[in-house]
Amino acid sequence: MTRVLTAVAVAAAMVVGVSPAVESARAQGFPTRPVTMVVPLGPGGSTDVIARVVAEGMRAALGQPVIVENTTGAGGTVGVGRVARAAPDGYTIGIGHSGTNVVNGAIYPLSYDLMADFEPIGLISTQPFLIVARKSMAAGTLGELVAWIKTNAGKVSEGTSGVGTPSHISGVLLQNTLGVSWTMVPYRGAGQSMQDLIAGNLDIQLDTPATSLPHIRSGLIKVYAVTAKERLAVAPDIPTTDEAGLPGFYYTFWHGLWAPKGTPKEVVAKLSGALRTALADPATKQKLVELSQVIFPADQQTPEALRAYQKAEIDKWWPIVKAAGIKVE
């Protein structure tokens, strides 16, 4: 019995001793099977669309499929939590944005730490919003829409992708700018809220070009302005907020990729390299530009750049969100 126990102990020690080498070898061979990219919001929204474009670009770089899966709920916290709890082997990664991976930390009692429990992979792109309304809205200009909102503030409804999401935060900023408040209706994603806007169940929405433009072009909703200093290259007929009568009202938000804490550096490096390769690919770039995305420069697509950018955004937005009293409903 003693000899058996000794042999077991020696074998265990040997396994422990070679474990780092085995892990390194596995990391160097990564990936040998499909990678799952978790989208923390519903299908049809900007994050979902961007994820599918980036996933296809990374597939070519990694030589393995990158499967997009939507895991929704609680403003994106459910999906981000899934990534935090996933095995740190690189086969589960998550796309997120300034709402899910910054603002939510000031609103929700999270079971994970947005900075400590993830390995950053890289920044993807940033984009402005469009101020849109239901097709039956009588207002023909942004000035007229603002006047209508102020007259009917108690009756106005605005759809958002959830509490703390960029569409919600931009709506709060618009309320503060106009000095009035209205009802914010949270959904599980921009796709769902857009459907209700099209159906006329909502009055207004601040949404991404990726979600809004197809419905604007088909005449299903009205558009008033883009929340940026410059017009969109893909929709140059839409005026800026400066031009439309709401000077200085700007809002943009960004997307990035993360892996679970403890993912081997070699694996993170491969994922980051695949992301940079995808973003440099002309076909991927064109698809993102058509979605009104501004791709971050190559030197800002690194894990280190994302970590620094995310930390700066937390320092900027948490005090603003807390001062606005935004809470889980």
TrEMBL record:
Keywords for the protein's UniProt record, in alphabetical order: Signal
Signal sequence region: 1-21
Coiled coil: none
Superkingdom classification of source: Bacteria
GTP-binding among keywords: no
Family: Belongs to the UPF0065 (bug) family.
Name this protein carries in UniProt: Tripartite tricarboxylate transporter substrate binding protein BugD
